[in-house]
Amino acid sequence: MSQQAPFQTYMQRIEPEHNMRRFYHLSIQQNLFGEVSLMRNWGRIGSAGQVKIQTFAGEDDAQARFTQLFRAKCRRGYRALD
């Protein structure tokens, strides 16, 4: 993995009128086998949530998917906290 700044963000969507308090965490990490993985964790704030790990052939593919997911969440009302 390159020495660039790590791709990582924590987002929240809070809408009290709909009793909605959600989080979404995205990060790109290298796994034990040297592959690049996009880790996603989402759920209700205060819970452990769900986790999905997606492995990519290269860092560019992982960064493209990261950006795609980040933009989709922003369109749905999530706001980055970092």
Give the total of beta strands: 5
Regarding quaternary structure, what we see is single chain
Radius of gyration: 14 Å
> Distance N terminus to C terminus?
22 Å
Which strands sit side by side, in order, in the main sheet?
4-3-2-1-5
- Helix proportion range: 10-25%
Unreliable residue stretches: 1-5
Overall form:
elongated
Assign the structural class, choosing from mainly alpha, mainly beta, alpha/beta, alpha+beta, or little secondary structure: alpha+beta
Q: Helix and strand string, N-terminal first?
A: EEEEHE
Strand content: over 45%
Average of pLDDT: 91
Tally the helices: what do you get? 1
- Report the biggest beta sheet as strand number plus sense, adding barrel if it closes: 5 strands, antiparallel
Keywords:
single chain; 82 residues; alpha+beta; five-stranded antiparallel β-sheet; 1 helix; elongated; disordered N terminus
Summarize this, please?
This protein is 21% helix and 45% strand. The protein has 82 residues and is an alpha+beta fold.
How would you summarize the topology of this molecule?
Elements: E1 8-15, E2 20-30, E3 36-44, E4 50-56, H1 59-75, E5 79-80
Antiparallel strand pairs: 1-2, 1-5, 2-3, 3-4
